[in-house]
């Protein structure tokens, strides 16, 4: 677990830091007397960029994965349908580790329930004869 620590945070924070570095670089290229309007425009652009980048990064690294997990859990608790196979997350970060461990746990429970059902069927058949 220590190798996975903070990978998701880094994926979400580093792109935002790059946005700020670009803005600071732009400010450093400006003349020593920067007008208030220029600073206001730069701050507005940074806020808009941060908002858009945050939405994109959240959807890419968290949103879609949580939707797949929600769909998988809906199938697990459904009495009409069951997941065909365990859910696997391809990203090696904290959320991926949680999703894969939860999926393994659910798969283990499924195997135990299947064994209990088989034993119950055998017991039921043995009780008839």
Largest sheet: none
Distance between the termini: 53 Å
Quick one: overall form?
rod-shaped
What portion of residues belong to β-strands? under 5%
Q: What is the chain-wise order of helices and strands?
A: HHH
Total number of β-strand segments?
Answer: 0
* Radius of gyration, taken over Cα atoms and rounded to an integer in Å: 25 Å
Number of domains: 1
User: Structural class, from helix and strand content?
Assistant: mainly alpha
Counting copies of identical and different chains, the oligomeric state is single chain
The chain-level mean pLDDT equals 84
> Helix content range of the residues, please?
over 70%
- Uncertain runs: none
Number of helical segments with 4 or more residues:
3
Structure commentary:
The chain has 129 residues and is an all-alpha fold. The protein has one domain (7-128). It contains three helices and no strands. Helix 1 (7-29) packs antiparallel against helix 2 (36-77).
Name the descriptors.
0% strand; 78% helix; mainly alpha; 3 helices; rod-shaped
Chain-wise SSE layout:
Blueprint (H helix, E strand, L loop, with lengths): L6 H23 L6 H42 L16 H35 L1
Structure, briefly:
This protein is mainly alpha-helical. Helices cover 78% and strands 0% of the residues. It is rod-shaped.
